[in-house]
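[[Encoded backbone]]
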Amino acid sequence: MLALRMTALGSTFSSFSRHPFVRNVMAVAGGTAAAQAITMAFAPIITRLYGPEAFGVQGTFLSLVSIVTPLSALAYPIAIVLPRSDADAQALKWLSMLVACAVATIVLLGLLLAFDVAAGILGDQSVAPFLWLLPIVVILAAWQQVTQQWLIRKETFKSLARIAVIQAFVVNSARAGLGLMSATATMLVAVTTLGFGLHGAMQWWAGRRCPPDEIPQEKAKALREQAKQHRDFPLFRAPEMILSAISESLPVLVLAAAFGPAEAGFYALARSIVHLPLDLIGQSVANVFYPKFNAYALAGRPLLPLLFKALGILSAIGLPAFVLIAAISPWLFSLVFGAEWQRAGVYASLLSIWLFVKFTNRPCIGATSVLSMQRLFLFQGIIALVIRAVALWIGGYLLADDLWTVGLFGVASAFAAAFLIALVAWRARN
């Protein structure tokens, strides 16, 4: 009897693993897992080379990058997956890069005219020199987004997985190697910036093997049509992404201003490490779910069951992982990264509730594009920014305690992520 049950279970698993959706998720997740294993292998070396202050500067720079990245192409790359024809998707690729060039020019002019003002607003003068890298980041980030969305549209998930592994190895090797020569924040920031270019270049090369079936005959006309058809992305999605980036970057900026660069470095490391399961499974499912959800919508099929299935799978996977993170992070960070990073482990525990809900709601991000709910998504982003800012003000300035600051931010962010799930489920049902 037991043998029969084991045989049936093996047959069920074999059938399940052959499903295209599952195979694609496993391909992306496998590549992401390998990339994260590489990152984790290098992490104890890198943290011992650079120290909290250097990580704090890099974290602040990455916070600025996360704010300008949505501006880079005004969210047009996200729409590349949506059109029925490759000709329209090609037009969106060209439109995205033209917009990025214009935005980079505006950012450069802004720095030339008001660099001192921008540096003064930033507060941390150690980050100010790196502001000049932002126009370059705008171009490279847009290129990365465009090439990634094209590969997702073509469902070349194995290429995405291989690129993630190569990217992780090259970037972390560069951080470690350069750190042996000069363990400064400049090295970390330089490698981070060049990493965008490397990622985009590899994705562009992979995309050459899956050329479009159609190419627009009149490029100028096609650009105008796509800009008009998908105008809700720059009007609503780009502002939402900017608000989300600002609200998620606020803890680094507040901790650096209120408590010093070391606390900002602790937070930057904690957030990057506890994001690993989110990026491993959550983003893998989201990347595969997005084109599938779009195909269901184009075919007029019910959307809510598919959404609930994805949310349920991620909830079942994420709950034990994030409970474990909450329980052992302080001890684990001290063991792996050194005793001076124990505070980062405490921060990781406090962030676990938010990152569990964010892990679960990853499919909802792509669903908002398919459901044409850019306006509602922007509304959710405004709510998230307000409650996060209030939480940080209470913790950082009213209570003047870094643990309260991180803890309150985690709770406020969890509420905002749950609110997005409710909005997407309501729209999918209707």
About this structure: The chain is about 85% helix and 0% strand.
